[in-house]
Each structure stands twice: as C-alpha cells, then as structure tokens.
Amino acid sequence: MDVIWAIFLFALGACVGSFLNVVIYRMPRDESIVFPGSHCPSCGRAIRWYDNIPLASWLLLGGRCRYCKCLISPRYLVVEAITALLVGGLWLCFYKLHVREGVGEFLDTWPAYLAHAALLCGLLASALVDIEHWIVPLEVCWFVTGIGIVCATAWPAPPELMPTVSPATGAMALAAAVGLVAALLLVKFGFIQRSFLDAADKPAREPAPQPKPTESRQAGGKRKRKKGKKKKKRKQLEHQADPPIAGVAITKAHGVNPRTEVLREVVFLAPAIVLAIAAGLLVTEVQPVRQAWGSLTGPGGGRLAAHLNGLTGAIFGYLIGGLWIWGFRILGTLGFGKEAMGLGDVHILAAVGAVCGWIAASMAFFLAAFLALAWAVTIFAMRRQRELPYGPWLAGGALVAILFYDHLLELLRPYATVVAMMGGATGNGP
Questions:
Q1: Angle at CA 152, nearest 5°, toward 150 and 154?
Q2: Per-residue pLDDT averaged across 65-87, rounded?
C-alpha cells in the first residue's frame, strides 16, 4: 500500500507541476490560467493531451513542439520533476522517515499534509516568478493561505504541525484579522490611501549601451575576424543585451518620499493593532468575557474548541509571518529612506504561518536571512547587483523549517527557557 501511495503522490505532484508551469508563465503576463488551453508559445497550436503528459511528453518529443519543431524550455520538465519530488518527498519525510514528531498516520492527518504540500508548491511558483520578474503572484499566496486556514479549522492538526495559542492570544489574533478586513474596506472606499500609489515605474535593469558602429560598417566594407575575436564580441553583445540588475527598490527618484509612503502602511495596520489590544484587554481583564471565551476555547468546549483553536492558531501564524517582513519593511524604509522589502514577501511568509504556525514562520524568516547573505555578497561582487529577490530565500527557509522543525526547536529551547524566566515564569508551572 505504501508503494501505491508513493507512486500516486509523485504522479500527482508531476501533474500539479504541469499546472504550475502555466501559472509561472501566464500570471506575470496577466494572462488567464484557464483559457486558452495549453499551446505552443511559438506557433500557437494547441497541445494534444498525449503531448501534455507530465515528464514523459517532453522527453519523448525531445523538448520540441510536435508541429513547428521549436525548442520548448527545459524549465517545464524541471518544474514538473521538482514538484513531484516535493509532493511525494514530503509524504516520505512525514510518514516514512518520520522527520517530524507527532505527525501520526497519513489517513488521520492528511489535511495537514495537503496544506503543507500546497504550501511547497505555492512557494516554488512564487520563487520562480520572483526570480524572473521580480514580482510575487499574490493570488498564489492567498490560495495557499486559504487552504491552510480551512484545513486547520475543519480538520485540526496535531500541535506538532500547528502550534496552539493561548485563549488571549487567539482572541487578539481574531480581532486583528477583523481589523485587517476593516482596513481593506477603508482602502476600498478611499478613507485610506495605498502606499507608493504615485510612484513612477522604473525598470529593474539599466539600458544596455548600444555598440558603436565600426569603421568597416561605416565604409560599407567587410572585415574578417579571427574565431577568438568573434567569440569575445558575441559575449560582449550578450552581456549588453542582459545588463545586471540596477535596483528595484522605490526611492525618491521615483517621485515619492518612501518614508512618508510607508507611514500610510502604519495607518493601514492601525485598526488591526487597536482591535487586537482591545480584545486582549477584554479577555484578560473583564471577568465575564474571560469566562465566556475560556468556555469556548478550553477543554470544556469539546469539538468546537478544537476547531476554534485550529482557526486561531492558523490566523496567529498568518499574522506573525506577515509582521516579521512588514515590520522590517517599515523600519528599514524609515531608516534608509528607500523601500526596504516588498509587500509580496509579506504575503509569502504570511502563507507559511497560516499553514505551519507562527514558530515555523519565525524560523523561516531568520533562515532566509542566512541563506540570502552569502548569495547577496556573491552577486554584488560579480554582477554589481545591488538588490536580489527575497522570495526564493523565504521559500528555502520555509522548506528547511518544515523538514528540520524538531531539530531547530531543540536548539532554540534553551533560549525560550531564558525568555520565560525573564518574563517571570517558573519551571514548576503547567
């Protein structure tokens, strides 16, 4: 039976990878991912079902269109293979290699596995789009977030996969979510202005310098060159056609004041902050409210309490994941006078929190910084590139956090004990 499950999930992952190829290609171009159907990007001919079998069709056709014989990027094959490994490999890691404690049996915790698999697929798509286009497909992040919240609420996961939160924290998380919805409505009806709305678009790459006409071209003559010189010239032209990234962060050169603009985001977050504080005070200081909320979320609440705690755990993870990035974005922009991090990165880590909980999202945030540091130094030295997309490193950090969660938690446990002692907690309490 295990072999059947493994084959099925690897095949399912390959099929999902085929769909991800559509998402990765069409979403940045504002094209529908539904219509038209799969077609050759060169000749436009529709791809028959037998030429659209994941992994197999690309290999059988030699990476070419059946009709026009134009090359089809090997990225399609690679994405399908990676997605198959992610979906099938996650099942192996969770249920056969037992890299995570407390996961249980597959038939009992499959919704949590489904949410984690969807997260990995979404992270792959977001990372590849971010690498190529320097944007994050927000719809992918929203879809993954929705799956995470629904699965955590309808089929509560073990605390090892979705950490539960205290009643007060859960109430604050729900209130903050209501505040975010209220802020979105205020933006829609024009009471709050979006940040960087008036910023002029600026291409990420600097214009390539045009090659100067040679003396022979001006005279209309022909000059023979040696093979080595031709090769060198070709490399120079390729470099000119694809110059290094100059920068994508919004600065005053875009016609706006970044510090002023990011303060609009603080205003946007204000309703969530105010409602969260109010809910925390009500639940902790007002006795009737505390008792009523405790009866809903405590052991006496039964199945309703389990579903409600799953919901609050997922929402709190979503909020903490997003706030890690958003907080650094606001502080960095105020400190350096240019857009510090993209809002797309906020949605990526928020989706991680909605699926994995606030602890794994926090781990992913710090792991991403370590993963990106060495690469940032390398590209700055080799390509004179001042910036890099952060989405792929958040995706890498999330993958490491998911697989090595228990080991990382054990490493951090002494520090958590110190924090608890500083807060006045004792080792004898519950």
A1: 60
A2: 93
